[in-house]
Amino acid sequence: MQIGYARISTQDQNLALQRDALDAAGCAKIFTDIASGGTAARAGLTEALDHLRPGDTLVVWRLDRLGRSLRHLIETVTELKKREVGFRSLTEGIETETSGGRLVFHLFACLAEFERSVIQERTRAGLAAARSRGRRGGRPTLMDIRKISAARAMRSDPANSAADICRAFGISRATLYRNLPIRPKPDPATPEAAQLPSLVRP
Predict the structure, then answer these.
(1) What are the residues whose beta carbons fall under 8 Å from the beta carbon of 1, sequence distance 6 or more?
(2) Rounded to an integer, what distance in angstroms lies between the CA atom of residue 179 and that of residue 23?
(3) Rounded to whole angstroms, how far apart are CA atoms 39 and 106?
């Protein structure tokens, strides 16, 4: 059985062109979505994939109607192959049940892997260049030296609790404790407790 899948991005577009092509291709059932190509959650696509059985073929009007990206397209078709489900794209004339269609998707998979390698290489090169200039990757710190000094001054005043300091700087307790390591309060039952000042109020 051939199962069709059609997608348009907005309500202003029309599914008629895709539906007509899928009907002409002999699709027994057609599932549809109105969603951007970058949208991960697509109810129509999920229903179509759930409906497919071994020996069936998923048919689309054009490749970009199915995949969010080349990588996603390859992953989807590879998963279909594992389920013994074929794939066919009408506009590109690709059918994975033929030797030519399998060759095309093998080339696509190679291109996706190449693209992934290039992105990783560029990322590593960019991080190395940044480190050579004294820059570090990752999220910027919320507490610089000036803020840490001011927070330490606030903490030295017994009237300020940890919550007061966090509110003043717009940070969480975890960030505060990470930048200003605080010793836990000693057990009042120990003799040393009377000699140690309390560092943090609850």
Answers:
(1) 28, 29, 53, 55, 56, 57
(2) 64
(3) 25
Q: What is the DSSP letter of 182?
A: -
Confirm whether 124 is domain-assigned: no
Residue type, 151: A
The verdict on whether 161 is a catalytic residue reads no
* Digit-coded pLDDT (tens) for 56-113: 999 999 988 987 777 788 888 888 988 999 999 999 888 888 888 778 777 777 776 7
Chain length of the chain: 202
Question: Given pLDDT bands bounded at 50, 70 and 90, which one contains residue 183?
Answer: low
Please give the model's pTM, rounded to 2 decimal places: 0.56
Which one of 9, 36, 69, 172 is the catalytic residue? 9
The answer to the question of residue 76 being in a domain is yes
Burial class (CB in 10 A: 0-12, 13-18, 19+), 29: middle
Strand positions, DSSP E, the chain: 2-8, 29-34, 57-60, 86-89, 94-95
Which CATH number does the domain housing residue 50 bear? 3.40.50.1390
How many domains, in total, are found in the chain? 2
Comparing 33-47, 67-81, 126-140, the range with the smallest average pLDDT is 126-140
